[in-house]
Write a structure and sequence with these properties.
- By secondary structure, this protein is of the alpha+beta class.
- It has two domains: 126 residues, Aminopeptidase, CATH 3.40.630.30; 138 residues, 3-Layer(aba) Sandwich (Aminopeptidase).
- It has a 13-stranded mixed beta sheet, with helices on both faces.
- It comes from Eiseniibacteriota bacterium.
């Protein structure tokens, strides 16, 4: 790999980065294609740091990418892939080690990622790097609204009310794409979000946040009070449906340890995919090898093999 170098992702133009992501994911088990607008959306919403992310260049041509999201002491791998022609050369390992060390240099304590349970190439790589399985995440789609339980009503709320309710009552962490940092980025960027409260016996038993776009409902947050999930979850799901959402409701990465999960699964949704939610804990002094050199450098040339 004498001609392969690693460079920060902000050293290549957005169209080239977008094309690289699409080629790297061209044979992915879950179809993915982004345009430049979607790429900007991902970078902004998920706090993907292009300066700390890395792109592999082979003779000056982009052949691999690892995108790193940063929020305080937590980081997230927002996409890692190598184009089909560049695989089986250790580039995935090299890219991952590089961004992990950039995360360490920024004071990160935990690095998270999701990987499809069917991705037999990537899972062993992540395990070798020290990532450990935390839980399963399901990508689910409901074609029709469930029945609202008797005695439960819904009413409009505000985004801030939902976020505050979630901080008080959430019993499992949301994945990076839907956690509070992402929600606040959506609000900052002007996306229209709808907030709903579920009421039973005169008190709020659950709250949800969703958006409607491209003919479908996307569930972003749904939290219930202890013991109320069976009442709040179907009521909030039903309230989110709209006639214009002809594609139904999609819930990206619903954690298996979420109180809503068994209720949603009992509604027989279509499962588009399941993922492993994985975590790497970084400790002071831990080394992953040659990328421990003083940082940052604008270009990192890989040794010949």
């Amino acid at each position: 790999m004498a001609d392969v170098t690693l460079v920060p992702a902000d050293s290549i133009e957005l169209p080239a980065l977008t094309a690289l992501m699409n080629e790297a994911y061209s044979d992915y088990d879950l179809p993915m294609h982004v345009d430049e607008g979607a790429m900007r959306f991902m970078l902004s919403t998920f706090d993907l740091d292009r300066a700390e992310s890395r792109v592999a260049l082979d003779g000056g041509v982009p052949v691999g990418v690892a995108l790193l999201g940063l929020r305080g002491e937590r980081a997230w791998i927002g996409g890692m892939g190598v184009v089909p022609a560049g695989r089986r050369r250790g580039l995935g390992d090299t890219l991952m080690k590089a961004v992990i060390e950039r995360a360490r240099a920024r004071g990160v304590r935990e690095v998270w990622l999701e990987v499809l349970t069917t991705n037999a190439r990537a899972i062993p790589l992540y395990e070798r790097l020290g990532f450990r399985h935390v839980r399963r995440l399901d990508v689910l789609r409901l074609a029709a609204p469930p029945a609202t339980p008797e005695g439960v009503s819904t009413e409009s709320a505000t985004v801030e009310q939902v976020l505050e309710f979630a901080r008080l009552h959430r019993r499992s962490e949301e994945p990076w794409q839907r956690e509070e940092g992402s929600v606040r980025n959506w609000v900052r960027d002007g996306l229209a979000l709808e907030a709903t409260a579920a009421i039973r016996g005169g008190r709020t038993i659950g709250m949800a946040l969703h958006r409607i776009a491209a003919g479908r409902v996307s569930m972003l947050t749904l939290v219930s009070m202890p013991g109320q999930a069976a009442f709040a979850t179907p009521a909030l799901l039903a309230a989110a449906f709209r006639p214009e959402a002809e594609q139904g409701l999609r819930w990206l990465n619903l954690p298996q340890d979420d109180a809503a999960s068994p209720i949603v699964l009992s509604l027989a949704p279509e499962c588009e995919a399941s993922q492993h939610d994985m975590r790497l804990t970084l400790e002071n002094g831990t080394s992953l090898g040659r990328h421990d050199a003083p940082q940052p450098q604008r270009e990192e040339r890989l040794p010949e093999r």
